[in-house]
Amino acid sequence: MLRLLLLVSTLLQCSAFNLLPKIPTPTKIDQTQNLDRRQALTSSAITMAGLFGFSSQAMAFGGKLKSVNIQLSAYGLPQISSVPDGFSPLLELYGTGQNRDTLLVEFQHPSDWVVVKPNNDVNGEDGTIQAGEYAKGDTATFFVWDGVGKKKIEDQDKDFFASAIKKAISQKGDNVYQDFKVINVELQQHEAQTYGLVDFKYVLLTGAGFEVERRGVASVTSEGNSVQVLWCATIAARFKKTKEQLRVCAESFRVYADGIKVNKIDYNDKDFEVKKPALK
Q1: What is the DSSP-derived secondary structure letter of residue 271?
Q2: Could you tell me which residues come within 8 angstroms of residue 210 by beta carbon, excluding any fewer than 6 positions away?
Q3: Verdict on whether the full-model pTM lies above 0.85
Q4: pLDDT tens digits, one per residue of 165-182
């Protein structure tokens, strides 16, 4: 104990008379090395977070919401005030090719769902905007019903909503489902736009000959010259567990046509793949 007190006393005296060696100011190389160490620690933290169940999507979530709101603000559109825990916002352009009208699509989905977007080639834009946990059969899919013009959603009957959703689920043919039924329709108003929130069920007929009961919630609206549907569904056995997730997806659905301007992809341009339009 006496030795320790003597050592502390000596250090204090040395400090008082500036007798301790000076700590060198970090050089540029030292700062770079420190940065590399911080990057390594950050990378390790993200890796460990993944091991303990915290996804990188969740860690970056705040930044994603801010980015989406910046883009919405640039278009003069309402921003997203909040997102439920475990969900991520999605904002994506549909119709960047010459063969489709351009729409801006927004909805929220569980953060661990995989997002699929349309793709473009020399034949035009193909595919749609979709998010899902595909192995379990949980999906939220965007569909455009062309050729029907703009509809006043609040004036439509139950048969209209049934037709819109049946069109959405039968893109591969009318023989892929049976026993379709609309359970309930509820109208919701967002800004000046009306959406029909529809509970539905049907039986999916698979190519292997199986019949799979499915339940879902869809949101139907009409912007521009078409009717748009976001239909969110899962297998009936999982519906009780996932219905609130599906409802959040459907209720958060927004689509915009007016004022959404993009430079359409020029398919005659050999470099069109690296010139895809971005959200402005």
Answers
A1: T
A2: none
A3: no
A4: 999 999 877 789 999 999
